[in-house]
Design goal:
The protein is of the alpha+beta class. It folds into six domains: 27-131 and 560-633, Rossmann fold (3-Layer(aba) Sandwich), CATH 3.40.50; 282-470, Valyl/Leucyl/Isoleucyl-tRNA synthetase, editing domain (Isoleucyl-tRNA Synthetase, domain 2); 488-553, no CATH class; 637-712, no CATH class; 732-874, Isoleucyl-tRNA Synthetase, Domain 1 (Orthogonal Bundle); 877-938, Ubiquitin-like (UB roll) (Roll). Helix content is 33%, strand content 19%. Strands 11, 12, 13, 14, 15, 16 and 17 form a seven-stranded mixed β-sheet that branches. Strands 26, 27, 28, 29, 30 and 31 form a six-stranded mixed β-sheet that branches. Strands 2-1-24-25 form a four-stranded parallel β-sheet, with helices on one face. A hairpin with a 4-residue loop joins strand 26 (637-647) and strand 27 (652-654). The protein binds ligand ANZ.
Length: 939
């Protein structure tokens, strides 16, 4: 009876699919449990063994919860809009939908092969019109809403219109654009509809505005801050510049405080919460207004240190600040303009992280100190960011390092306002310890008191107030790409209009080319049928545009994160065409109980999703304002790269041991050309990199040995291991066990295929335990379990249950190994032991568990079996193997009940034949009995 894993796995995968074993019901007597994975982007390269790590962990948990009696929702889908398919379309002309479909087929085959217990009847694809209809729907809901700071929630825009009509906007405490003008009800009622629409746009939760964006010329699109890494695009590493463009934005900043507070109520990893806290970046301080000499304009600054206001010796504006062009004197104009041009090439991140380069230009203008009325030079400098605070700072060289460096560099005065502190490059005053000096009405005060007083005084003269600032920016929501969700928006006189929900989805149009148009419009500008007819309520030919009944449609598409911001809710009711999900579905599933995914989404997907969820909560569509109760980040599986060493400047490779002092250049060799002894298949390498076809390979001991290094597993490092091959050679159960065995889930760990033989050998051993049930060698009568076997089983139940509850899957695998070794040694053939053992193992190695489960004569899938109950009594020892000593020397052992009295132990020991042998007729002087420990016979 061989363990024929390939056949077994195929058989059970087919069984699960045909019987819809893992289909979750939206209504059940059982308690619910929702286990979610971050859905994959289906790339052309398919999965490598690093990808399924988190999926295996969540699958174990989902299967475990089913054994524990839960109705488990464990769905999967595809985040299928995105750049790679579009880049491929640009190069080959192939429609991204086709590429996407093919890639999804590959992913599905690979996922099925690993034996995941997904409910595929709930699959979603973000690029499917049936799905993105609801992404468009959420967009419209956001457009129809504004954020009321008084109630701290999103409300219907129609409510705001009512307030405007009855009392204007003076009492409205809303999240809105900075430059909203104050108006009365009379003014509002006298405005034209277009004017009113323009004002409302300043309040809506998604709005159209001219914003400074990160423009990536190579990709031809705008990128979000989290899509830029080290100043270049995350995808492709292209340069990114700042540019002003009219874009859709999401007013996520309105939710800054709630996004921050909400972190306290969710069980997410500390590191992830910390990244979100930093990203939200709450600062408490004040705004202060400085008049500009000779101008009507004022400069408002945000400061966290109002107490340092008498230490201000200059002001710095961000080069992009609106005032710069107005206040710069003619003499300084050329220099200022050149500087602005130079900064536009640097990304915000660069500017923030670069603390070494000090640069700036004097504008020639002066501000007036709000209290001393002294003139203060106004500079521009790129260390001040346009998008933070007010884009202007009051510079205090004695309190702030960057201001200090700037003052030093440009030889600006450095006044000292801290008593007894020697201001220098190294020493900055600790704000909580110093006393203020040289500062008029706050002299002698500490930081706290001085801050309060300055804010009060600023308020008195109408030049400032207390203020809380958040680093979190509104999120740009337009992309100049083809392969994304179209906006349900058309334009009348330049004003955006939403298409009525009942006409959704607005499907992506066909285009000839996936590139921007010659006039620089996004790819949808190439579509010829892309206009909205308000009479037929349909998309019509562009030629029909008449601006009376037929209007142009939006040319941008939505960003990658649109489709992933509500997918977890859509899974609850994915085939509903009438609503994003039904009330019954959301009432039953509530929220995600466990979410497993990568930490790289900390400030992207995971923040945007929390924002949309809070919005959906405000609107009453969902019952929780956090979408995922618990979140775990899986670590990464690293690849073991292989290198061949080419002598610099020569067409010659040295085997690793021969390098010595030679100057060599390491060149990646695909790991599939290297065996487990690090020997390179030279022919395969040469065929792969034909430029080395004629290279000379200098061998050691007749072999070419490669060097090894651990790096991120990636196609570009030629160190990927394909799960298909592993499943073929060892089976999916071995793959699953091995991925877990590698180490703690959240850690980074290197892959080593050679190690898989260990877990594979374990599965074969497990199989052997059940062979007597399959080959008929087991005699008819049921075997009663031995005490030892019961003990093995119950300690395994206890450990595995604890492990799974703690997401410590690696330690379970070793527990199974110990259990199987013990049961093998005990020659266990008891069904009472072997049957529950299968249930314990089934979340980890479901195929073999199913096969053996049915070999034991069970009907149906093991997935419905209950998790074995742990019984403490099997672990309690009832007897003790006493060491029996004579004059302190241990001679033999004796098994005696633990509840035996001292006297009875003594009698039993003395009666033993071996004792008589030792005593040879002598009478012992003394018998020392320590119950439960030892017996010592003296004499
Ligand atoms: C005066 C001052 C004195 C400041 C002092 C600091 C120390 P956080 O905590 O990050 O919110 N600032 C304000 N807007 C800025 C911008 N757009 N770009 C760069 N820096 C900006 O930092 C707030 C502080 O950073 C503010 O407080 C301001 O400098 C500066 F002893 O004002 B401070």
């Amino acid at each position: 009876m061989k363990y024929n894993f390939n056949d077994i796995e195929a058989k059970w995968q087919k069984y699960w699919a045909e019987n819809q074993t893992f289909k979750a019901e939206n209504n059940s007597e059982k308690p619910k449990y929702y286990v979610l994975d971050m859905f994959p982007y289906p790339s052309g390269a398919g999965l490598h063994v690093g990808h399924p790590l988190g999926y295996i962990a969540s699958d174990i948990y989902a299967r475990y919860k089913r054994h524990k009696g839960f109705n488990v929702l464990h769905p999967q889908g595809y985040d299928s809009f995105g750049l790679p398919a579009e880049q491929y379309a640009i190069q080959t002309g192939q429609h991204p939908a086709i590429t996407t479909k093919e890639n999804i087929a590959t992913y599905r085959r690979q996922l099925d092969q690993i034996g995941f217990s997904f409910d595929w009847s709930r699959e979603v694809r973000t690029s499917d019109p049936k799905y993105y209809k609801w992404t468009q729907w959420v967009f419209i809901q956001l457009f129809e809403s504004w954020f009321n700071y008084d109630s701290s929630k999103a409300e219907d825009i129609s409510e705001l219109v009512k307030v405007f009509a009855s009392e204007g906007n003076t009492n409205v405490n809303a999240a809105c654009d900075d430059d909203v003008e104050v108006f009365t009800a009379e003014v509002w009622n006298g405005l034209s509809s277009v004017e009113q629409q323009n004002i409302l746009l300043q309040y809506r939760l998604t709005y159209l505005a001219e914003t400074e964006v990160n423009w990536c010329p190579a990709l031809g699109t705008v990128l979000a801050n989290d899509e830029i890494v080290n100043g270049v695009s995350e995808r492709g590493g292209h340069p990114v510049v700042r540019k002003k463009m009219t874009q859709w934005s999401m007013r996520i900043s309105a939710y800054a405080e709630r996004l921050l507070q909400g972190l306290d109520n969710i069980d997410w990893t500390d590191s992830l919460k910390e990244s979100q806290r930093n990203w939200i970046g709450k600062s408490v301080g004040a705004s202060a207004v400085f008049n500009v000499n000779g101008h009507d304009e004022t400069i408002e600054v945000f400061t966290t240190r109002p107490d340092t206001i008498f230490g201000v010796s200059f002001m710095t504006l961000a080069p992009e600040h609106d005032l710069v062009s107005k206040i710069t004197t003619p003499e300084q104009k050329a220099e200022v303009e050149a500087y602005i041009e130079a900064t536009s090439k640097r990304s915000e991140r660069d500017r923030m992280s670069d603390v070494k380069t000090i640069s700036g230009v004097f504008t020639g203008a002066y501000a007036e100190h709000p209290f001393t009325k002294e003139p203060i030079q106004i500079w521009i400098g790129d260390y001040v960011l346009a998008s933070y605070g007010t884009g202007a700072v009051m510079a205090v060289p004695c309190g702030d390092q960057r201001d200090y460096d700037f003052a030093k560099h440009f030889d600006i005065e450095i006044p000292n306002i801290f008593e007894g502190v020697d201001i220098s490059e190294e020493a900055f005053a600790d704000k909580d310890k110093t006393i203020i000096a040289n500062s008029d009405f706050i002299n002698g005060m500490n930081y706290k008191k001085a801050t309060k007083r300055v804010i009060y005084e600023l308020e008195q003269i109408g030049q400032g107030q207390g203020k809380t600032n958040y680093r979190l920016r509104d999120a740009v929501f337009s992309r100049q790409r083809y392969w994304g969700e179209p906006f349900p928006v058309y334009y009348v006189n330049g004003l955006p209009q939403m298409i009525d929900v009942k006409h959704l989805p607005i499907e992506l149009p066909e285009v000839e080319k996936y590139l921007p148009t010659e006039t620089g419009e996004p790819p949808l500008g190439n579509a010829t049928v892309w206009a909205w007819c308000t009479e037929t309520n349909s998309v019509v030919d562009n030629e029909k545009i008449n601006h009376t009944s037929v209007f142009p449609l939006e040319l941008n598409t939505m960003p990658g994160w649109a489709g992933s911001s509500q997918y977890f809710n859509r899974y609850m009711d994915p085939n509903n065409d009438d609503a994003i999900f039904s009330k019954e579905a959301i009432d039953y599933w509530q929220q995600v109980d466990l979410y497993i995914g990568g930490s790289e989404h900390a400030t992207g997907h995971l923040l945007y999703s929390r924002f949309w969820q809070k919005f959906m909560f405000d609107k009453g569509y969902v019952n929780h304002d956090e979408f995922a109760k618990k979140l775990i980040n899986q670590g990464m599986i690293l690849g073991t790269s292989a290198f061949a060493y080419r002598v610099e400047g020569e067409n010659k490779f040295l085997s690793k041991g021969l390098i010595g002092d030679s100057k060599v250049q390491p060149i990646h060799a695909d790991v599939s050309f290297v065996n487990s002894s690090d020997e390179l298949d030279i022919e395969a390498f040469k065929n792969w990199r034909t430029e080395f076809k004629d290279a000379q390979f200098v061998l050691e001991d007749g072999l070419y040995k490669v060097g090894r290094d651990v790096e991120k597993m990636s196609k570009s490092k030629y160190n990927v291991v394909n799960p298909d091959n592993i499943c073929e050679d060892y089976g999916a159960d071995s793959l699953r066990l091995y991925e877990m065995f590698l180490g703690p889930l959240e850690q980074y760990k290197p892959w080593n295929t050679a190690g898989i033989t260990g877990v594979h050998g374990f599965l074969k051993k497990l199989w052997k335990l059940y062979v007597p049930f399959m080959d008929g060698s087991l005699s008819g009568a049921e075997v009663k379990p031995s005490k030892d076997s019961l003990k093995t089983l119950h300690k395994t139940i206890k450990k595995v249950e604890e492990d799974i509850e703690n997401f410590s899957f690696n330690t379970s695998v070793s527990t199974f190994m110990i259990a199987v070794n013990e049961l093998t040694a005990q020659k266990c053939t008891s069904r009472d032991i072997l049957e529950p053992l299968l249930v314990l193992i089934s979340p980890y190695a479901p195929h073999i568990a199913e096969e053996l489960w049915s070999a034991l004569g069970n009907e149906g899938s093991i997935s419905t079996a209950s998790f074995p109950e742990f019984d403490e009594s099997h672990l309690v020892e009832s007897s003790k193997n006493y060491p029996i000593s004579f004059n302190g020397k241990m001679r033999f052992t004796m098994e005696l009940p633990l509840d035996m009295s001292k006297e009875d132990i003594e009698t039993a020991v003395l009666a033993n034949e071996k004792t008589q042998d030792q005593l040879q007729g002598r009478t012992p002087k003394k018998v020392i009995v320590v119950p439960g420990k030892i017996v010592n016979i003296v004499g």
